[in-house]
Every structure is written in structure tokens, then in C-alpha cells.
Amino acid sequence: MNCRALRPITKFCGAVAVSCLSWTAFAQQAPEDRTPPPPQSSSATDEQPPTQALPPCPTGEQAAAPAPTPPPPAPPPPVVAAAPEKRHNIVFAPQEISVTTGGGATNYFGTALNSTTDPGAAWDARVTVGTRSILALEAAYMGSTNNIDMQAGAQHGRLDSHGVDGDVRFQLPTVVQPYVFGGVGYNHMSVTQTSSVSNAGPLSDEDNQVTVPAGAGLTGYIGRHATVDVRGTYRFIPDNGLTEMSNRNLHQWIAQAHVGYVF
């Protein structure tokens, strides 16, 4: 047989064989799953909200720490007992004290000096215990100075006096307070001379004396702490050694005004 006549037959047989192989391979493939997917539920299709972030878990030490104990309640405030009411002792109240100071005029009289002194200045500082009760106690420093005249009237010396008086005072316990007092004291007198002793009476240079003061006065209280006072004092000086005469009694008058502070 002619080769050229067999060539078309050979090509045809090859094409048929290739087609058969291709169809066999296509038949062996799994059939495509054409089943429609099940419908999704409406809840699955809805948009889910974002998940909130949770706080981190505590570490081991933090988890083991006990919870803080609340503080104990505050104790109730202590009960303060009311202070006992102070009662004023109308007879004698030693807790009521005043300090006063003042000045005024003074002079001596009687036969011992034979009217040879001029009126002079007097001053004092006084502590009174029991200012607003019926009974009070007083202690005072007393000072004074007087000029001494010669018998002809010319001035020639000075008589100085310094002493301490203590007395008991009886008074009305009112805001305006009249009172009387009496006591005993000590006095030192000295003479500063500018001419002969005989011209003055005569007088010695100095003397220590016992005095007996007595008098009356009027005190007023302004507010709680202020006080004013006026008083007249008579001081009897028995047997003084300053005068060189047979009658040795000496008398002194004092008129004074005071201001002070009450504690």
C-alpha cells in the first residue's frame, strides 16, 4: 500500500485516540456539587458589637493581699465636768486683791515740833487683800518730806520720813465703798539741816519710830479691774527720839488720792 495513502488514516486514528483519552479523564472527575448552600440565619448576618476589653487579672501578690480593714470608730469626746461656781465670801475674800499708788499732802502738829514744819508732799504704794468684802487687810509703804523753819521763819532744813504701815480695814462691799481702818507701823525720820540744830526746835538727825495709823476713806470701782480711792490718815508717833523736848509725842496728818488695779 502506498505510504501517502496511510498518512491521513494515521492522523485520524491519533485524533480519535486523543479525544477518547480526554473524555475518559473528564468522566473520572467528581461531579460538581451544585446543591445551593443553606440560608444563613438573620442573627448570624447581623453585625456583632465589639467586645469590651476586660481589666487585666491581678498578679499573684496582688491577689494574695488582704482587703484593707476599716479604721475603728473615733471614741466619744470626754465629758467635761462643769467648774464649780465660785461663791463670793462677803465677810473676807482673800482672792480679791488690788494694788494702788497715789500722793497728796502731809504735815506734823503737836508740841514736839513747836509748829516748825511746813506742809509737804506724801506718797505711798499699797496692797489691799479683800477688796469687795466687809473685812480687808492692807500693807503700805509710806513716804513724805517737809521743810523745817527756824523760829524766826527762815527755812533751814528738810524732814524726811519713810515707813511701812499695816492695818485692818472695815468697809461696805459695794461698788462705791466707804471704809475705816486702823493698824500699826514702823517709821524712820531724818533731818537734813542747813543751819544749827537749835534753830529748829531743837531736833536730832534721825530716829526710828513706832506709828499707829488710823483713818477713813472712799473707794470706787470702775469696771472689773480699775479702782480710785481718796483717804485721810492720822498717824500717832509716841515717844519719838527726833525732838529734844520733854513732850515726845508727834502727830501727822495725810490726805491722799490713789488709782489702782484690781486682780
Query: Whole-number radius of gyration?
Result: 64 Å
Low-confidence stretches: none
Number of helices: 3
Averaged pLDDT:
80
Largest sheet: 8 strands, antiparallel, barrel
Structural class: mainly beta
What does this structure look like?
By secondary structure, this protein is mainly beta. The protein has a domain at 97-262: Porin (Beta Barrel). Helices cover 13% and strands 44% of the residues. It has helices spanning 3-28, 42-45, 60-64, and strands at residues 97-109, 120-129, 135-149, 155-171, 176-193, 206-222, 226-237, 250-262. An eight-stranded antiparallel beta barrel has the order 1-2-3-4-5-6-7-8. Strand 6 (206-222) and strand 7 form a beta hairpin. The mean pLDDT is 80.
Topology summary:
Elements: H1 3-28, H2 42-45, H3 60-64, E1 97-109, E2 120-129, E3 135-149, E4 155-171, E5 176-193, E6 206-222, E7 226-237, E8 250-262
Antiparallel strand pairs: 1-2, 1-8, 2-3, 3-4, 4-5, 5-6, 6-7, 7-8
Search tags:
single chain; 263 residues; mainly beta; Porin; eight-stranded antiparallel β-barrel; rod-shaped
Can you summarize this structure?
The protein has helices at 3-28, 42-45, 60-64, and strands spanning 97-109, 120-129, 135-149, 155-171, 176-193, 206-222, 226-237, 250-262. The protein is mostly beta strands and 263 residues long.
